[in-house]
TrEMBL record:
InterPro entries recorded: Aromatic_deC, PyrdxlP-dep_de-COase, PyrdxlP-dep_Trfase, PyrdxlP-dep_Trfase_major, PyrdxlP-dep_Trfase_small
UniProt xrefs under Pfam families: Pyridoxal_deC
Modified residues (N6-(pyridoxal phosphate)lysine): 333
Biological classification of the source: Bacteria, Bacillati, Actinomycetota, Actinomycetes, Micromonosporales
Keywords: Decarboxylase, Lyase, Pyridoxal phosphate
Species whose genome carries this gene: Salinispora arenicola
The protein, known as: L-2,4-diaminobutyrate decarboxylase
Family of the protein in this entry: Belongs to the group II decarboxylase family.
Annotated GO biological process: amino acid metabolic process; carboxylic acid metabolic process
Start and end residues of each stretch annotated as Disordered: 1-22
Length: 530
């Protein structure tokens, strides 16, 4: 079979010459086999891994900004020009090449001015776990591919469930991320909602009428899940938020009533503990009360806010989370774990059966009867990484209080940053987050809102292009805003002040160069944020 031409533009450059000896040295099975990790290759394993670690360490030590600002058009040909059918034959040369095409222009989340997304600096014990789990390469689907790893994962699910305060029947499984955890939880909720209905026609009708309620600030993965679960296009009903961007319980009550009157069964309410955009936490006790009264499944999406589970001072912000029927936790956001490390937890282990299928070759029903602990019986995935090892080593080396203290610290840093922006007349801020998010907008008096929109977008692009800082952008009530997501305890107020100054400088220059957008209208006509 011939493959189509590589879609990455080759930029018309001639292919650089490679020493031919290198490309043939791996031509025999014996030579190739020496690359497989086995008793005879442990020296190579040690050396190669150590060299890779050294390359990363040197880069980490040397970076002076979170990003080089390289544009996609500059980088694409570097990757595109590489001839994948002509191996370099040794890892040193491959690492040199990799430095050119990746490491040199990577985005560095350990840098104090890396403020854009929910990527955290990573705990070294977790990196140790990552290196070990990939070398041993267990797959967590069945006991006979995993053995003890199965119990490590189960202990961590149990540990997390205890932290949440779920009951003795709680259970769960690690997943690839919050998106998958939300999908998994909503699959279970859908199956519970449809459990009593067996007739095929009646099931089809019910499926088309099921609704999911979540706030306007809920994560978009809820919409994706609804689509994958075969629900109607209008199945996700958004509930309005209050001025603090938290789901309004009265509005939830009204939507629950409206759905009941319209005979639209609500299969789940998704509350968010840490909205991605605002870092706000829905009022969980009040939402849980309303769900219990209506007999509706409560899913809590704590992908971001889960770090509070180990917080020494802020754990109470999650009060009510223990009433969830299911919840999502992303250790790779607020537990300082490398991607990926996430889990879905459920209050009652029995609901996990909705994702159980028995395959004769893998996990026959007989194995379940014999109490063989096959995690695939609980998971949407089959082959699955031993991501739990990273959290395990982090807890065994650092302990939960240390992780919680780090997360507390970034929440405090973000609170300081919010106050800085709030008292600065050049900026307007949105809802103060109890977590680590600051949403704001450059908007001095007298600047037309449309011009401010453009100036904020321009400032963000300029920051990225210079690599001086990485900040996120979002839209709030139709207006362009900027966002800091602080997950790095090394970020200081001086870093925040510097970045705010840079934003004001870029935005101010843009506004100055586009004077037609200026307005003489007074302050009350300038942009305002709820
Ligand atoms: C990040 C996030 C998700 C998605 O999680 P991934 O791990 O990126 O798949 C879901 N919900 C919330 C609230 C999030 O912040």
């Amino acid at each position: 079979m011939t493959l189509p031409a590589d879609p990455v533009p080759l930029d018309g450059k001639p292919t650089p010459a490679r020493p031919d000896a290198l490309s043939t040295s791996v031509g025999t099975v014996a030579a190739a086999q020496a690359y497989l990790l086995a008793d005879g290759s442990v020296d190579r394993y040690r050396q190669v891994l150590a060299d890779g670690v050294d390359r990363v360490a040197r880069r980490v030590a040397a970076v002076d900004r979170p990003f080089t600002g390289i544009a996609p058009d500059e980088l694409a040909p570097l990757v595109g020009d590489i001839e994948l059918d002509r191996p370099l034959g040794d890892h040193g040369t491959a690492l040199d090449e990799l430095d050119e095409v990746w490491l040199r222009d990577a985005v560095w989340f350990h840098h104090p001015r890396s403020l854009a997304h929910l990527n955290c600096p990573v705990a070294i014990p977790a990196l140790l776990g990552e290196a070990m789990l990939t070398a041993v390469n267990p797959s967590l689907d069945t006991w006979d591919q995993s053995a003890g790893a199965t119990f490590i994962e189960r202990r961590l699910i149990g540990w997390t469930a205890t932290r949440v305060g779920l009951g003795p029947s709680a259970d769960g499984v690690f997943t690839s991320g919050g998106t998958q955890s939300n999908l998994h939880a909503l699959l279970l909720a859908r199956e519970e909602a449809m459990a009593q209905v067996t007739d095929a026609d009646a099931r089809a009708v019910l499926l088309s009428r099921l609704r999911i309620l979540t706030s306007t600030a809920g994560h978009f993965s809820v919409q994706k899940a609804a689509k994958l679960l075969g629900l109607a296009p209008d199945a996700v009903v958004t509930v309005e938020t209050d001025a603090a961007r938290r789901m309004c319980p009265q509005a939830l009550g009204r939507e629950l009533d409206r759905c009941r009157r319209a005979d639209l069964p609500v299969m789940a309410v998704v509350a968010t503990a840490g909205t991605t955009d605002f870092g706000t936490i829905d009022p969980l006790p009040e939402i849980a009360r309303r769900c219990a009264a209506a007999g509706v499944w409560l899913h809590v999406d704590a992908a971001y806010g889960c770090g509070l589970l180990v917080s020494p001072t802020r754990r109470h912000l999650l009060d009510g989370i223990e009433q969830a029927d299911s919840l999502t936790v992303d250790y790779h956001k607020s537990f300082f774990q490398p991607v990926s490390s996430s889990a879905i937890l459920v209050q009652d282990t029995r609901v996990l059966r909705h994702a159980t299928y028995h395959a004769d070759y893998l996990n026959p029903a007989r194995a379940a009867a014999e109490r063989i602990p096959n995690q695939v019986d609980k998971s949407l995935q089959t082959t699955r990484r031993f991501d739990a090892l990273k959290l395990w080593l982090t807890l065994r080396v650092m302990g939960p209080d240390a992780i919680g203290a780090l997360f507390d610290e970034v929440c405090a840093r973000a609170d300081d940053a919010w106050a800085l922006a709030d008292t600065d007349p050049r900026f307007e801020v949105v809802a103060r987050s109890p977590l680590s998010t600051v949403v704001f907008r450059w908007c001095p008096t007298g600047i037309a809102p449309e011009l401010a929109d453009e100036a904020n977008r321009h400032a963000r692009n300029q920051l990225t292009a210079s690599g001086a800082a990485m900040v996120a952008g979002t839209t709030v009530d139709g207006r362009a805003h900027l966002k800091f997501t602080l997950l790095n305890p090394a970020t200081t107020s001086a870093d925040v002040t510097l970045v705010l100054d840079l934003i004001a400088e870029h935005a101010g220059r843009y506004a100055h160069d586009h004077p037609l957008g200026r307005t003489d209208r007074t302050a009350d006509m300038s942009c305002s944020v709820v």
